[in-house]
Each structure stands twice: as structure tokens, then as C-alpha cells.
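Need residues for this backbone.
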């Protein structure tokens, strides 16, 4: 009887330890700074804020996403390094976006007047927990003000 109860306990622990992780919650962009601005390729740095609702930490191994601004192509987000995600916490993921000036100009009036911009991030992320790795889809949509004036002031530093 004792062995049966240990077996059931082990099975319960195994099932809860291998439970499917909940999706990360996108919370927006922070600390947006233009690193380079010219008529060709430009660079924008930002922190992407997420929340991990899981009771365990994860390792983000890879991200490959398209970033759309007001439904138009803006840039790609690629990350190919291990990033530890803490359990039950908000966290910031540093990102570098490269974009063409023409993609920004399409939304320039909204950006200059600090109007809300619709952002979509669509792609995949590879997460791991111990020896288990899984690629999960990413599909976030948010409306956010991107203060271009503040980002441009960071360019003069």
C-alpha cells in the first residue's frame, strides 16, 4: 500500500512538473531610443515588457517575429541567445529593431503628435524548461503611444 501511494505521488509530481506553460503576456514597449536616424537603414532600441504567469522560470532560446505598425510592415525582431525568464514576474527583454525610413514615414504624423499606434508582433518563440523545448506562436496586438520626440532627444546624447 505504501509503494502504491509513493507511485501515485510520483505520478502527480511528474504530471504537474511537465504541465504546459501558459503564454507570456505582452505588456508593451519601454525606454524607446533611436540609435541611428538617416534616410536608409535606421536603428531603434527598446525594452519589450512581458509578464511570465507561470510558477516556474523558463529560458527563451529564440524569437523570430514580424513587427507591424498600423497593419504595415515595420521591422523584424530576431533574438538568438538564451535569456532567463523569472517565474511569476514582469521582465524586460532588450531589443534592437532595424527599419527603413520609408516604413516610419508612413506613420510620421501619428508619431510626431504622439497618437496611439497599433502594433502587431507575429511569429514564433522557442522556450525551454529543463530538457524540454517547445516552439510557441506569438501573436500580440496592442495600441500604444510611441513618443518620437522623446526617442529623438535620446539621439542627441
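Answer:
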Amino acid at each position: 500500500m505504501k509503494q502504491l501511494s509513493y507511485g501515485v505521488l510520483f505520478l502527480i509530481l511528474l504530471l504537474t512538473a511537465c504541465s504546459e506553460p501558459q503564454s507570456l503576456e505582452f505588456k508593451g514597449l519601454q525606454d524607446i531610443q533611436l540609435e541611428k536616424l538617416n534616410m536608409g537603414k535606421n536603428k531603434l532600441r527598446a525594452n519589450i515588457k512581458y509578464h511570465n504567469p507561470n510558477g516556474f522560470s523558463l529560458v527563451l532560446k529564440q524569437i523570430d517575429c514580424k513587427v507591424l505598425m498600423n497593419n504595415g510592415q515595420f521591422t523584424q525582431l530576431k533574438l538568438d541567445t538564451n535569456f532567463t525568464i523569472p517565474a511569476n514576474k514582469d521582465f524586460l527583454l532588450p531589443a534592437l529593431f532595424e527599419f527603413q525610413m520609408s516604413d516610419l514615414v508612413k506613420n510620421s504624423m501619428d508619431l510626431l503628435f504622439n497618437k496611439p499606434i497599433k502594433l502587431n508582433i507575429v511569429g514564433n518563440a522557442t522556450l525551454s524548461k529543463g530538457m524540454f523545448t517547445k516552439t510557441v506562436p506569438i501573436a500580440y496586438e496592442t495600441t500604444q503611444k510611441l513618443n518620437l520626440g522623446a526617442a529623438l532627444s535620446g539621439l542627441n546624447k
